[in-house]
Structures are given as structure tokens and as C-alpha cells.
Amino acid sequence: MYWYITYFTLYFGIMIAVAWYYYYKIKTYEDYMIGSWSTGFWKITGTIISTNAGAAVFIGWVGLGFTVGFSGYFKFALVAYAFSLTLVFLFAKPLRRQKLFTLADLFTARFGGRTGIVPSITSAIVYSVPTLGLQLVGMSTVFNITLNWDLNTGLIVSTILILLFSIPGGLPATIITDAVQALIIILGLIVLTVTIVIHVGGLGDLFSNTSFEYLSPISPDGLSDTLLYALSVGPFYLVWQSTWQRIFAAKDEKTALTAGITGHLIVAAISFFPFLIGVSARQFVDLNMEQDLVFSYVTNELLPAPVAGIIFVALLAALMTGATSFNLQGASNLTRDFYQRLINPKATNAKLLLVSRISVAIVTILGTGAAVFITNINDAYRWALMVNGVILVFPFLAIMFWKRVTKKGVFISMIGSLIFILIYPYTGMPFDQALAGYTFSFVLLVVASLLTSHDKSEVVKTAMRHKLEDEKTLAKELE
Question: Would you name any one GO CC term (predicted)?
Fold first, then answer.
């Protein structure tokens, strides 16, 4: 236990010191939320790795590998990074060109008015809050395993630590620590993977002693189950604001593209390790163990405290960076899309900076409340991804490619899809929820846009080819 206390004290001490260092350097809202659009290649690459390796990777995906085997990698991890790379390949340059803060900003730039409210609420409440809660659950689990704290105590301490880091430091502190933590995360995953594979007799013995259903890329429930599961999680990564923030934060379009590709290729490779750990754990762990406990149990059982402490620090690094990314994501929505656009359009930069820090605290506390109700990390994360994806993916693609899409069409589609996806499980219909949701969203968006006309507040151009804010400014000057 003393090893763990020493490691954790050093780690959190350094993290909080870095945050307060940036507290005195950050002077504007742009610095705090987006790093003034000036972040370089290695920092963007590192923060992509760290942000993608949160509770889902270390805890959720080890547990998924433990329960379903390697098919979990193909229907969750691989598809997530395939869509992330699609976002970067196709949209990194045109999105960086827009020079925005949030996903909702793109909707506002294209349609004007308050169109960004729905994606803002969706991003902040339906995604940021529950996924922040997942990180808090992960941190409290680590403290429970290593320090014997009860989960509620761990939850409270985790909340305080995240507040002490993210309120003063903002995105600059998150990005600079992510770049270093990425190395810790990769090292930790490699060490634990090698240790557990050796423990079960090597890869040869592991494969020979594991039934084929846990080695197959196809789920035991068949190809359709694998594909439908992938559909429920993959498309969301086209509209994941954490990736968008890294694109916006990059110093130029080339950095947004190259760092995005590099970071996601690395995490696509290392994310196989948690599934290998989970499958290996089936050889000696009680098969009735709760899947969210497998990672911590294996680490604590197989490794001596000095080495296990490094692994747990890597886990805490991943959880900490995930938590700060998600509360900053939600706070940017509250500050930019609610406070600045709806309450105080003439707010000074100092006022926006203050509201940003207050919003970080609000989102973090809401995340703590959500953590109390989370019983399964994979299920909670999958639900958040599916709901956000159904509501936002097709409206986003329409903004990028389809000039005919209208403000009313997008609004009707987002509200209608939200209602549909929430009530669908209670209808008793036999179709997969994600498949039905995406189909409904697409049809509703197309029909509603074709039946309505463009609003005078719209910039009737595609974001793939035009910088929308510049087009809107030009239109006002010509009036």
C-alpha cells in the first residue's frame, strides 16, 4: 500500500503543479478552451492517445475481452478508430479552417440563430456528463483495490482531484500532460500484457487453451450481432467533440491532419492489448467476476507493488486525462453555446474565462452524480455513443456536403431523433435500436429539409468548401 501512496502522491502532485503553472499563463478564454489554435504535432498526438485511453480502454475493454473475447476489439475498438481516422482524413482540414471552438459552433455558423443549442445539450449532457462519470468510477475502483477505500470515498477524492487540475489548467495543461502520459499509458499496457501472457504460458498455450468463440473476430451471437454492435458505437466518432477540439487546437491544417492520423493509428494498435489481457484473464480469474473489476484484480494479483504501482499510475493517467477532456468539452458547450450566445453575447474575455472555469466545476459535479448510477462501463458508454451518434451524425454530414439541408430540417431531425431513440426500447419493435435510429434520423432529415425552405440566417454553402463564418460576415456586409 505504501508504494501506491507514494506513486499516487507524486503523480497527482505533479499534475496539480502543472495545472497551477498554466493558471498564471492563461490570460484569455481562447487560451483556456482551445489553446489559442496553436498546438503542435507531438502535443496533439499525445493528447489523442491519452484521451482515447480512458476508462473504456483500461477497464471497459479488458472486461469486454474477458466476457466476449477478441470480437470485442473488432466490434468496438477497431470500428471506433476506423471512424476516427475517417473524420481526420476527410474533415480535419475543412474543420480546422473554420477556426471554431465546439461542434455546436459549426451548426450555428451554418444555420445561424440558436440551432447549436441541441448539439450543445447533446454533447454536454448526454455525452460529457456520463462519460466523465465513467472516469470517476474507474478512479474510485483503483483507490478501492489499492488503498482499500470504499467506492464513495474514492468518488469524492477523485472529484476533488479532477477539479484541482482542470479548473486552473484548462486545455493547455491537459494537452501538455497528455503528451507525457501517453508514454506512461503505452508502457503500462505493454508491461501488463507481457506479464499476463507469460503467466498463462505464452501465446501458444493461451490460444490452445481458449475456445474458438473467444478468439474469433465474430461475436458468438453471429456476424449480424458484431455489425449491429459496431453500428451502435462507430458513427459517433465522426462527431466526438474531444477529437474536434484537438483538430481546432492544432496550429494549422497540416498538423490537424498528420497528428490526428498518427495518434489514432497508435491507439488503434495499443487498444488490442486490453482485449488480449481480458482473454488471458479467463485462464485464472473467476469467470463470475464483474467485468469492470478484472483489470484492477489482475494487476494487483500478478505484479509486485512497485511494478503494479506504475500500472495503476498509467490507469489513473488515462482516467484523469479522460475526465478533464470530457469536463472541458461540456464546459465549452455551456460557456460558448449557452452563456455567450444566449445570455451575454457581449461578454468580455475575462468574463468568459471565469464562466468557463465555473462550467468545468458544474460539469464535473454532474459527472459525479452520474457516476453513482453507473453499474457497467461498457453498457453506459455504448448507450451514450449511440444516442449522440443518432442525433448528430447525419446533420453534421449534411452541413459538410449537402447545400440543400435547411435549418428547420436539421432542427426537426435532431429533436425527432432524440425522442425516437429514447422511446424506441419501449415500443417492442424487433429491429436493432441503433439501426432503427440512424435510419429514422436520415429519412427525417432529408424529408424535412426538402419540405422546408432556407432561413434568411443560413449560409447556404457546404462547410467542405467554404469557411462559413467568413461567408456570413460577407453576406452581412453586402446587405
Answer: plasma membrane
pTM across the whole model:
0.81
Asked whether residue 370 is assigned to any structural domain, the reply reads yes
Structural domain of 294 = 2-377
Neighbours of 472 (CB within 10 A): 18
Q: CA 416, CA 439: separation in Å to the nearest integer? A: 12
Number of domains, the chain: 1
Query: What is the spatial distance between Cα 451 and Cα 447, in angstroms, rounded to a whole number?
Result: 6
Residue 152 within any structural domain of the chain: yes
Cβ 445 vs Cβ 409: under 8 Å: yes
Instruction: Kindly state the average pLDDT of the residues 182-206.
Output: 87
Do 370 and 117 touch, CB atoms closer than 8 A? Answer: no
Q: What is the widest separation between alpha-carbon atoms in the chain?
A: 75
Helix (H) or strand (E) holding 139: helix 129-147
8 A C-beta contact, residue 109 and residue 472? yes
pLDDT digits (tens, 9 = 90+) for 218-273: 987 888 888 988 998 899 999 988 788 788 888 888 988 999 999 999 989 988 99
Which of 331, 337, 423, 392 has the alpha carbon at shortest distance from 129? Answer: 331
Q: Is residue 94 part of a domain?
A: yes
